Amino acid sequence: MGRPRPVAIVHLLCNGDSVSLCYTSGIDLFSKFSFFSFAILAGMKSLLVVVVVAMAIGGVISLRAAPQAGSDARARELIQTLHLTVLPKESGYLGIIGRSAQMVTVDGRALAVQSQNYYMLTRDRPINYLHWLVPDDTHILIEGGPVDYFIFHPDGRAEKVTLGLDLAAGQRPVVAVPGGCWKALRLRDGASYALMANALSPEFTPDRVKIGAGPDWVKRFTGSAPWATPQALRELIGPNWMPK
After folding, report:
1. Are the CB atoms for 206 and 181 separated by under 8 Å?
2. CATH T-level fold of 72-240
């Protein structure tokens, strides 16, 4: 094969506001194209390095700015973000999510099929004191924990269930408490908080809850489980003790 023949190419040359026609051989154009391509690729590589470095710096700043999960600072952030307020008598923090639009009739009364809340225990409010509910109450762990549930059934049985994510240790991410049971919750020692969502079916109403108990209740459930000593039961009742 012989020497490649020059090819006449007409292209636009832009210089400021003026545009003119130029003649360039195919060989010269190829050389210029190769040079400019190399320059563009080199520039893109530099830009990529700058972007990666910027993202890394931004990630470090975000990690430093965001409270660490499981910390007291994170607990305060959740309380503020979810607009949680202290729950009187029972203690802990409560935030109303809403109620179902579907209705059901119970004992001649129209109630929503379900209502939903956020509930939170923290290091400064680690106990949800003893109370009794008519509706079924299902708790789902969102973050933190674990939390021990002390559940007292109408037939006199008592059980302890742990809400948590360590399934190998027997913890459960969901705890369903049947309606008509007494219960109390206690945050495990060493945990900063536990945020959960609870669904009550049918909906919660203030006239279908009892808070606190007295000596007769303690006598009834003493010995119903190995941990159910009079002192332990009294602690679960807390400030809502009802003496005769």
Report:
1. no
2. Jelly Rolls (2.60.120)
The radius of gyration of the chain from alpha carbons, rounded to an integer in Å, stands at 34
Identify whether the C-beta of residue 205 lies closer than 8 Å to the C-beta of residue 235: no
Strands of 193-201's sheet, edge to edge? 85-86, 93-99, 115-122, 193-201, 136-144, 174-177
CB burial of residue 151 (10 Å; 0-12, 13-18, 19+): buried
CA distance 106 to 128: 27
Closest CA to 88 of 239, 217, 194, 201: 239
What the block records as the tokens of 178 is 């049947």
Q: How far apart are CA 86 and CA 70, in angstroms?
A: 20
Measured in whole angstroms, the distance separating CA 92 from the mean position of its chain's CA atoms is: 17
Q: Which residues on neighbouring strands pair with residue 131, listed in sequence order? A: 183, 211
**Domain edges within the chain:** 8-64, 72-240
Sequential pLDDT tens for the chain (244 residues): 555 554 444 444 444 444 444 444 444 544 444 444 444 445 544 544 443 344 544 553 344 455 777 899 999 999 999 999 999 999 999 999 999 999 999 999 999 999 999 999 999 999 999 999 999 999 999 999 999 999 999 999 999 999 999 999 999 999 999 999 999 999 999 999 999 999 999 999 999 999 999 999 999 999 999 999 999 999 999 999 999 7
